[in-house]
Automatic annotation (TrEMBL), chain A:
Underlying gene: sept3
Septin-type G domain mapped to chain residues: 41-313
Organism: Echeneis naucrates (Live sharksucker)
Location relative to the cell: Cytoplasm
Classification via Gene3D superfamilies: P-loop containing nucleotide triphosphate hydrolases (3.40.50.300)
Pfam families: Septin
Protein name stated in the entry: Septin-type G domain-containing protein
CDD domains, sorted: CDC_Septin (cd01850)
UniProt similarity note: Belongs to the TRAFAC class TrmE-Era-EngA-EngB-Septin-like GTPase superfamily. Septin GTPase family.
UniProt cross-references to PROSITE patterns, sorted A to Z: G_SEPTIN (PS51719)
UniProtKB/TrEMBL annotation, chain B:
Main localization (coarse): nucleus
Protein name, UniProt field: Septin
Statement: the UniProt record of this protein carries the keyword Ion transport: no
Domain Septin-type G: 45-314
A GO CC term attached to the entry: kinetochore
One Pfam family, short name: Septin
Residues in coiled coil: 341-426
Location in or out of the cell: Chromosome, Centromere, Kinetochore; Cleavage furrow; Cytoplasm, Cytoskeleton, Cilium axoneme; Cytoplasm, Cytoskeleton, Spindle
Family annotation (InterPro entries): G_SEPTIN_dom, P-loop_NTPase, Septin, Septin7
Entry keyword Coiled coil: yes
Encoding gene per record: LOC115056289
PROSITE patterns assigned to the protein according to its UniProt record, in alphabetical order: G_SEPTIN
Any single biological process term in GO: cell division
Length: 330, 444
């Protein structure tokens, strides 16, 4: 492998005027070093689920991370009353896979869109997101900073669209319009086993058109594509969004295999079967390929926008000594 | 339609047995033919039925209607309300004439597009309530007319309320709506798009809904108990399944060589008419085959009577129609609660009382005004007095001052005169001595 690297290094033409290497140095091991470091420190991921009750938000999060991480499993009863105002409930878990530790925080929003009058039900959510940015900003602006600032900013917001089969509801467009500039929004069509495949296609097209017409930029945003490769990858994903998903945490036997699914009187809906629903696509997209990108976009773009706005108003923040900061919420 | 006249005959039988002794007949008289006569008359007249469907958009209301009556009420050329987004709640009705076995049914479907779709859904039930009330009012007016040849019955006989299959419970909007409508119309709650739920989830959901309905004391349509044991068993089975979980479809798919209506999924076909898959057949049998007449009767005897008594009580209490319905104002001559003359007398009395009251009021007002004016005058008089006093005092003070000054002046004058006199005296003295000196003048 080292020889290959050597040849590659030798034959590379650097248009920026770099010199060709005469031997193997070992710069490429930095990737390995970074990997070891991240494995040791682990990382945070904060995901928020928004949608009105009964759309399967908690089940989907459980299915995504294949463990009981949603608030429903932390001891709440199934038929608790719908709260009168939108509440924000965050539940954190540490999950580990292949030596990599991830601190996953799931932020749930019960009460969203459930009342008769849902005016401004997006405000508590907007406030929460800005509060997290504010916390991070305060830590950053400190004179004596912590070595690793705890990151509670919402990296990704999954918005659940009700599978009516006709159009987006007014509440959906209102919410997404207002929040697409402060957080990455990923719309998904919930309970997709309600619709047949043709209905799904039609609905998706209609939803996409409506999102375009309303100017809602969902993640992955077109303007942040860095190069052609990114663009083509993301284009493919954007074409398939919003994903029509089904969630389940029960297992059944199908053709000798144990699969996650929902058992109905006329068949078993397999959650991970790409012919049945697009859950597998969503999971790959969210976790296997774009997890780091979500964090980066949140940090480099959404957070920076917030920071610039904040520092421009009121003459900016003054750095405060560490004795005044709020304690971290680990 | 067989059940329709049977039900009416049952009632006739019951009422007869209660008050009279039963006698045995000695020959064949022939009134056993009565049911047939009723049947023939009704068939000639035809039947009417008005069904209202309420629920948020996308719950499959139009599809269910199409499946229930096996017609395309909302076809591709005439897209139903679901295809158009509404900003406010509308109430639309479409009429269809269906014939089956020589019996014709005028079916009116009332749809409510836009219900529950906005961000702020307060009072989205108001247009629905207004519609139902206006239809009842039309019937009331028609009933009270002098010439009652044709009385079309457009009242809403049944309201199917679609609950979204969230699996958790009723939404606040559902509860509000049903609470407000359960005493105006027969409400039958349905779980829409039931193929979303697995059988266990469906059971849990149904139990939860029934619990909440009882908690909030919502009176949904109750199936009447009949004398037949078999029927009772059937009815009990239906009651256990409430609210009915339905799936609608008009697409015919082939399953195992049979053609069935259903929805094709990659993992199977959900059959609409299969009792294991959903409760559609139960709904259809109940709505059309067994209880259609009962729904109409309950609407007529219970809901309409409620409305009528409320409306008439409001009218006769005040002489003015105070009920809040937005329908047209009813004219006095058409309300048959009291005789028109008596009503006019009452009206006159009312009017006279009103006049007297107004007079008394005006007198009062007049008195008050007079008192006020008097008070004002008194006040100004007091004010004037005060000022007068003050001025007098001022004048006196000035007078005294002047006196004082004069006194001082007099004193000064006296002093001055005294001084003058002294001076004069001195002068005189001086001149005297001068003279003396002169006299003694010695010229040196």
């Amino acid at each position: 492998m080292h020889d290959q690297n050597c040849c590659a290094a030798n034959s590379s033409h650097n248009s920026s005027g770099g010199s060709t290497l005469l031997g193997y140095i070992g710069i490429d091991t930095i990737i390995e070093q970074m990997r070891k470091k991240t494995m040791k420190t682990g990382f945070d991921f904060n995901i928020m689920v928004v949608g009105h009750s009964g759309l399967g938000k908690s089940t989907l999060v459980n299915t995504l991370f294949k463990s009981h991480v949603s608030r429903k499993s932390a001891g709440w009863a199934r038929d608790e009353k719908i709260p009168k105002t939108v509440e924000i409930k965050a539940v954190s878990h540490v999950i580990e896979e292949g030596g990599v530790k991830m601190k996953l925080t799931v932020v749930d929003t019960p009460g969203f869109g459930d009342q008769i009058n849902n005016d401004n039900c997006w405000e508590p959510i907007s406030k929460y997101i800005n509060e997290q940015y504010e916390k991070f900003l305060k830590e950053e602006v400190n004179i004596t900073r912590k070595k690793r600032i705890p990151d509670t900013r919402v990296h990704c917001c999954i918005y659940f669209i009700s599978p009516t089969g006709h159009f987006l509801r007014q509440l959906d467009t209102e919410f997404m319009k207002r929040l697409s500039h402060s957080v990455n929004i990923i719309p998904v069509i919930a309970k997709a086993d309600t619709m047949t495949l043709e209905e799904r296609q039609e609905f998706k097209q209609r939803v996409r058109k409506e999102l375009e017409v309303s100017g809602i930029e969902f993640y992955p945003q077109k303007e942040f594509d860095e190069d052609m490769e990114d663009k083509s990858d993301n284009d493919k994903i954007r074409e398939a969004m919003p994903f029509a998903v089904v969630g389940s945490d029960k297992e059944y036997q199908v053709n000798g295999k144990r699969v996650l699914g929902r058992k109905t009187a006329w068949g078993i809906v397999e959650v991970e079967n790409p012919n049945h629903c697009e859950f597998a696509q969503l999971r790959d997209f969210l976790i296997r390929s774009h997890l780091q990108d979500l964090k980066e976009v949140t940090h480099n773009i959404h957070y920076e926008t917030y920071r610039a706005k904040r520092l421009n108003e009121n003459g900016g923040l003054h750095p405060i000594s560490s004795s005044d900061t709020q304690e971290s919420n680990l | 339609m067989y059940m329709l006249y049977e039900a009416s005959i049952n009632r006739m039988r019951v009422s007869v047995c209660v008050s009279l002794k039963q006698r045995n007949l000695e020959g064949y008289v022939g009134f056993a033919n009565l049911p047939n006569q009723v049947y023939r008359k009704s068939v000639k007249r035809g039947f009417e039925f008005t069904l209202m469907v309420v629920g948020e958009s996308g719950l499959g209301k139009s599809t269910l209607i199409n499946s229930l009556f096996l017609t395309d009420l909302y076809s591709k050329d005439y897209p139903g309300p679901s295809q158009r987004i509404k900003k406010t709640v509308q109430v639309e009705q479409s009429k269809v004439l269906i014939k089956e076995g020589g019996v014709q049914l005028t079916l009116t479907i009332v749809d409510t597009p836009g219900f529950g779709d906005a961000v702020d859904n307060s009072n989205c039930w108001q247009p629905v309530i207004n519609y139902i009330d206006s239809k009842c009012e039309d019937f009331l007016n028609a009933e009270s007319r002098v010439n009652r040849r044709s009385m079309p019955d457009n009242r809403v006989h049944c309201c199917l309320y679609f609950i979204a299959p969230s699996g958790h419970g009723l939404k606040p909007l559902d509860i509000e709506f049903m609470k407000r409508l359960h005493d105006k119309v027969n409400v039958i709650p349905l779980i829409a798009k039931a193929d979303t739920l697995t059988p266990e989830e469906c059971q849990l959901f149904k139990k939860q809904i029934m619990k909440e309905i009882q908690e909030h004391k919502i009176k949904i349509y109750e199936f009447p108990d009949t004398e037949d044991d078999d029927d009772n068993k059937l009815i009990r089975k239906i009651k256990e399944k409430m609210p009915l979980a339905v799936v609608g479809s008009n697409v015919v798919i082939e399953v195992n060589g049979k053609k069935v209506r259903g929805r094709q999924y990659p993992w199977g076909v959900a059959e609409v008419e299969n009792g294991e898959h959903c409760d559609f057949t139960v709904l259809r049998n109940m709505l059309i085959r067994t209880h259609m007449q009962d729904l109409k009767d309950v609407t007529n005897n219970v809901h309409y009577e409620n409305y009528r008594s409320k409306k008439l009580a409001a009218v006769t209490c005040n002489g003015v129609d105070t009920s809040k319905t937005k329908g047209q104002l009813t004219k006095y001559g058409t309300i048959s609660g009291k005789y028109p003359l008596a009503q006019m007398e009452e009206e006159r009395r009312e009017h006279v009382m009103k006049m007297k009251k107004m007079e008394a009021e005006m007198e009062q007002v007049f008195e008050m005004k007079v008192k006020e004016k008097k008070q004002k005058l008194k006040d100004s008089e007091a004010e004037l007095e005060r000022r007068h006093e003050q001025m007098k005092r001022n004048l006196e003070a000035q007078y005294k001052e002047l006196e004082e000054k004069r006194r001082v002046f007099e004193e000064e004058k006296a002093n001055w005169e005294a001084q003058q006199r002294i001076l004069e005296q001195q002068k005189l003295d001086a001149s005297k001595t001068m003279e003396k000196n002169k006299k003694k003048g010695k010229i040196f």
